[in-house]
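Recap quiz, item 2
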Amino acid sequence: MSAVMSKPEVAVRGLVEMQDVSVQFKVKGSAVNAVDSVSIHVQPGEFVSLIGPSGCGKSSLLNVAAGFVQPSAGEARLDGVRIKEPGADRGVVFQQYSLFPWMTVRKNVEFGMKIQGVSSTARETRARTLLGLAGLLHFENHYPDQLSGGMKQRVGIVRALSTSPQVLLMDEPFGALDSQTRVVMQEILTNMWQRLRISVLFITHDIDEAIFLSDRIYVMTARPGRVKSEIVVPLPRPRTPEMTATPEFAAMVQTIKGLIREESLAAMGGELKEGGLAGLSVEMGPQGVEGAIE
Amino acid sequence: MRAASLLDASHDRMAYLSNTPNPLARPAESLDAPDASTTVASLDRVKYQAASESGAGAETTGMALLVAFVRARLTGWIMAVISIGSVLLAWHLATHYRLDFYVRFGNIPSPGDVFEKVIEVNQSTTFITNIGISVRRILYGFAIAGVLGIGLGLLIGRYRWFRQISMPALEVFRPIPAIAWVPMSIMLWPSNEVSIVFITFLGAFFPILLNSIHGVEAIDPVLLRAARSLGAREHTLLFEVVLPAALPHIFTGLAVGMGVAWVSLIAAEMISGQFGIGYFTWEAYSLISYPEIALGMITIGILGLLCSSAIRLTSRLAMPWQASASPGERS
C-alpha cells in the first residue's frame, strides 16, 4: 500500500465539465425534464460520485458525458472539447452486464484496443496486465457466462480502462451485486483507482459506497434532477474498509441520508398527490419512507 | 448432453472439497494483483475452481469421469438402438401378419423387401446419382438462401430505412408456399434444374431471413452502447457485435430453413422433376414398385437428418460460448 502511495501519478488530463446541462425525454408525446440545468465537474484524477433519489436523472447525466444522449440545453466537455458522441476517450461501465458473450474475457478487454489499431502482442500484454490488476488473469480464457456477477463487472471495468480513457464513467456498476460482493468490489475499485489515478464519475444510490470511494459527492434533487448540495469527503487516501467504522464516516452518512430523505419525501409526496392519495404521506412518517430511498 | 452434465457435477464436487488454492493458479495471478484482489480471489476461488481446467485431484477423478462418460454414452446408444429397433420390429410384424384394421398393411413392403431393394438399386449408379442431384440442389438453394437471408436480415434488422423499403414487398411473398411457385418457376427460369433450386431456395429463405431479423432485434442495447464507448464505428458494430450477437437466432433460422428446404425440394422434384430422390420416390409409385417408395422415404429421412446434424455441428463450432447443456432437460 505504501509503495503505491509513494508514486502517485498525477493525471494531467481528464477534466469533465458539465455546464447548465438539461436533458428532456419524450413520454407519450410530452416532454419530461429528467435533468434541469446541472453544472458539475470532475477534476483530472478526481473521484466524484452522483447520488440522489431514484429517477433523479443521474444516469441521464452520465449518458450525456458518455455521448449516448444529447443534452437539450447546455453542454458537456472533456478537456475543453465538447462531447458529441461516444468515444474511447471515455470508458463506460454499465449497471447491466455488458460483456460480449461470444468473446473470452481477454478478447473482451482487447476489443477497444483492436479498434484503436494496437498490435496483437501489445494488446495481449496490456489486457493481461489490467486483468492481473483486477485479480482476473486466471480467467482470461473464460467466457463471460462462466463468471460470477462480481467478476463480470470487474472485467467490465478492466475493459473500460483498456483504451486508456481520460475518464471512467460508472453507472451504478455494483447495483446488481449482493452486498458482500459489493463491498469487496468497492475495495478493488478504490485500489485500482489508487494506482491509475484516473478521473471517475460514479453514479450510485448507495451512500456508504459514495463516501468510501469519492473525493467529492454531488447530491441531486428529485426529478427534475438538480444539484442539491456538494460534499467534499475529507477521508484520507488510500481508503481502507476500517474507515467505514469511524464516527466521521457515520456522521457523513447521516448528513447525506438526511439530504436524500428530504428529496425522496418530496418525490413521494408528488407521486402520491398525483395518484390522489396525498393523505397517505402523513401517516407514513419519515421512518416509513426510508425504504423508499432506492 | 448427459455426459456434459455429469462432467460439470463432478467438477463442482471437486471445487467444494478442496479449500486449498489451485497451486498452478497462484503465481500467475499474483503477478500484478494488489491487496484487494487476493481477498476477492479467495472468495471466487471456492466457486470457480470448478471452471479451472487444472485440478489437483485430476488423476484420481479422471478415471471416474471416464467411466461416467462412457456409461452415459453407452446408455445413449442402447436407447437409440431400442428406439429404432422397435419401429422396425413393429413394421416387420405389421407387414408379416398383413394387419388390416382401418390402416391397411396388405400392400406395404416389409423391412426385408426394402433391404433387398437397397442392394438391388446399388448395383447401378442411378440411385446414387439421384441422391447426388438432390443433395446438390439442396446445397445450392440453401447456400443462396443462407447468404441472402442472413445478409438481408442484418440490414433489415439494423437499418430502419432498409426495413421500410424492403419489408412490405417481402411480406407479400412470404405467405406463398414454395410449392405454389412451381408452375411460375418453370416458366421463369431457363432450365428445370434452376427452377428446382429456386424452389429449394424459397423454402429456406424466409425462415433464415425472419430469424436473422429477430436476432438483430433481440440484441441487448447495452452491448451496442458498450461497443460504441470502446470506439466502434458502424462497420465494426455490424460485423463484430450485431452479427455474433444474432448468431444464436441465425442458427435457429438455418435449422428451420434446412427442414423447409427439403420439404420444398421433394415436392418440386415430385411435380416437375427429372432425377432426384423425390422423383425416384414418385416414379416408384407410378411403376407400382412398393419397396422403392419406402426406400425413397427412408433415404429422404436420412439425408434430412444428416443435413440438420451438419447445421447443429456447425453451430456448435461457430458458437463455442454457448453452453451445450439444455437447462429444461430432466435426467
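The beta strands of chain A are 16-27, 30-42, 47-51, 73-78, 81-82, 90-93, 167-171, 199-204, 216-220, 227-232.
Confidence is low (pLDDT under 50) at residues 1-11, 275-294 of chain A.
End of item.
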